[in-house]
Amino acid sequence: MFLTGEELKDYVDGIIHEETQLSETGIDLTVDNIMKPTSPTELDFGGSEEKLGDLEIVKPEKRSPEDDYGWWNLEGGIYIIDFNEEINVSEGLGIVVPLDRMTSGGSFHHPLVFTGRMEGRPVLYVCESGLNLKENARVSRLISRR
Prior knowledge:
8% of the residues lie in helices and 47% in strands. By secondary structure, the protein is mainly beta. It has a single domain (5-145), classed as Deoxyuridine 5'-Triphosphate Nucleotidohydrolase, Chain A (Distorted Sandwich), CATH 2.70.40. Strands 1, 2, 3, 4, 6, 7, 8, 9, 10 and 12 form a ten-stranded antiparallel beta sheet that branches. A two-stranded antiparallel ribbon has the order 5-11. Strand 2 and strand 3 (26-37) form a beta hairpin.
C-alpha cells in the first residue's frame, strides 16, 4: 500500500505549499536548481582515478522586472536538478518519479529509488523542442510504501 501525501509529509522538509503538493499518492516535489554538465566524468574500476565532471548552474530569467519568479528556458539536452524538498524515508522505500505534466511534453527524468535519505539527483532529459520551467515548478512525485 502506498502512503498518502499526508502520511509522507513527516519525512519531507521544505514543502512549499502543502495544499498543492500533497496528494492521495504522494508528495509533489519542486525544482530549486538546475545544472548542466560541462565536462566529462571519469570513472575507473577501483575508484582511485574517479573524477566527477563539472556542473554549471543554469540561472532562471524573469520575463518581466516585476515578476517574483523566473523561468529556466532549457534547450534539448541533459541537466541535473535539485529539489527544494529534503527527503528522508527512515522507514520503507522511497521512489521519485516524473509527473505526467512534464512527461506529456516529451521531457522526463529517471526514477530514483532509495531507502533513508535521498542523496541522488535526477538527471533531466529535455526533448529537442525544449522545456520551460518556472522556479519552484512541480516536476516529480515522491511515493513510498510501508
